[in-house]
């Protein structure tokens, strides 16, 4: 069983978020604001259902899923697209594939050195975020 991702996590680094947002077609105006904010990740598990909340002073994004069960995701308040998303464990990584208009879209979460890592990718862009546990 992989280590639990559950808990509250505060962003400590965010590399190439700009490239990732450009790949998603986010406007310059929104990118300027989005680049300045820190995200908090809140991950909860209720039975076989996960809830992942990305919180910030600008916008919040919440979604929930069952592992290995494809679902319809609408990225409300982000790029507002529909995806067919599938989240599954690959070793110690929780990996999401987001099938839709954007090629090669998805993310992976894992724990390393007591930090929560998130790699977001879209087209040829990779964004790397690291979060520390909220104490
Ligand atoms: O995480 O999908 O944990 O969904 C990525 C935003 C910025 C809004 C954040 C607000 C992509 C403006 C979610 C950020 C850029 C920019 C706080 C990352 C789109 C719009 C919500 C994400 C997964 C994995 C869970």
Structural description of this entry:
Belongs to the calycin superfamily. Fatty-acid binding protein (FABP) family. Residues 7-24 form the Cytosolic fatty-acid binding proteins domain. Keywords: Transport. The protein is built from two helices and ten strands. Strand 2 (40-46) and strand 3 form a beta hairpin. A ten-stranded antiparallel sheet has the order 4-3-2-1-10-9-8-7-6-5. The protein is globular and about 40 Å long. 12% of the residues lie in helices and 55% in strands. It has 135 residues and is mostly beta strands. It binds 1,3-dihydroxypropan-2-yl (9Z)-octadec-9-enoate (YOG). 1,3-dihydroxypropan-2-yl (9Z)-octadec-9-enoate (YOG) is lined by residues 21, 24, 26, 30, 34, 39, 41, 52, 54, 56, 58-61, 63, 78-79, 107, 118, 120.
